[in-house]
Amino acid sequence: MEQYWVWLSSVEGIGPKRFYQLLAEYEDPRNVWDALAEGPLPGIGPKTNAHLRAARTSEYFHRLFDKLERLEITPVTRISEGYSALVGEVYDPPTTLYVRGNADLRLEKPFAIVGTRRPTRDGRRAAAEFAERIARSGGCVVSGLARGVDTAAHEGALQGGGRTVAVLGCGVDIVYPPENADLYRRIIESGGAIVSEYLPGTAPMAQYFPVRNRIISGLSEGVLLVEGSMRSGGMITANYAMEQGRDLFVVPGSIYSPLSEGPNALLMQGAFPVISPWDIPEHYRWAERPSAKPRQDKPSDLTPEEEAVVRPLRAEAMTVGEIARETGFSAARISSLLTMLELRGIISKVPGGAYRA
Where do you find CATH 1.10.150 in the chain? Predict the structure, then answer.
């Protein structure tokens, strides 16, 4: 029965809505196969009927499963044991998910981290640190393998020794973006999975990514938006999370940063703000934050001049001119101090010609 389920879901023109309509009428996909032997299906357009009849051959059937086996792809249908009950709750749940790697999608403590493809340095760091803490707390990090925040989240989960799942907007046999080929491989080797509802060989197209975002949130108990504009893909996932009744968390940001528009708007709508990687494991009682140790003062290895420069940079990024106004030092002296501090790894340059501790 699972094979007939995969067969029907593979036919061009049979998306989740059409699939479930046929299921309601014929009870199971095998009956659809049998009905096609008698002619076109009533209530189905001529184009879709033509696709169905072309696919109703033993040659098509065996070619489909031979290809999946050759590419080491496991189809997980809604009637498969490994299908996620969480994703089954979403609107138009995927009929079949194609998986490379661990095909058991009943994930332990699943949590999604999403955000912009062009994060700030702090955004990339937050995604990685939150993902690592979730992984070390026994959670599974779900994201989309995209550039930026998604990549940082997968990397953080791997750093934490946990499982991570990437949901693609193309076939699972296509690495997208291509520069994530090594990350793709490590996700599978570490016990994670690459997942898509699209047939193998499906090229990445802009319209596929917003649709796949319902699966990212659907697989997860909660979603964290790190950074993103109001029209970003991360906001689409956040909106799906709210529709699906998932917990929604955001990393607050500057009211002047375009990349904080999305998270800050969601805060106004009641999303949970998080300021520490421990906030999410504590929320779900997956782990308990270690008690704070008493602070022990120790002598600084910075000179008084260096400390005067670094102190304001701990709070925000500043340009040479802004540091000069803050400290009263000459621009030449500040440039010299910044060079030495950067070489020692105490500060770093950030976009816009500014520096940060």
Answer: 1-70
- How many Cα atoms sit within 13 Å of 198 on the Cβ side? 20
Q: Per the structure block, which two tokens stand in for 304?
A: 């008084």
Q: Give the tokens for residue 339.
A: 């060079």
The yes-or-no verdict on residue 78 having pLDDT over 70 is yes
Residues of CATH 3.40.50.450 domain(s) within the chain?
110-283
Which residue reads 């796949």 in tokens?
A: 212
Global pTM reads 0.85
Q: What does CATH list as the number for 304-356?
A: 1.10.10.10
Contact yes or no for 118/130 (Cβ under 8 A): no
Whether the pLDDT of residue 297 is over 50: the answer is: no
Q: CATH topology for 110-283?
A: Rossmann fold (3.40.50)
Please compute the mean of the pLDDT values over residues 22-46 and round it to a whole number: 93
- Residue 344's CB: how many other CB atoms inside 10 A? 11
Distance CA 54, CA 64 (A): 13
250's CB contacts (< 8 A; 6+ apart) are: 224, 225, 226, 238, 262, 263, 264, 266, 267, 271, 272, 273, 274
**DSSP labels, 327-354:** H---HHHHHHHHHHHHHTTS-EEETTTE
Q: Is domain 1-70 in CATH 1.10.150, yes or no?
A: yes
Sign for the CA dihedral angle at 156, 131, 255, 119 comes to positive
Q: What is the distance between the alpha carbons of residues 261 and 325, in angstroms, rounded to a whole number?
A: 30
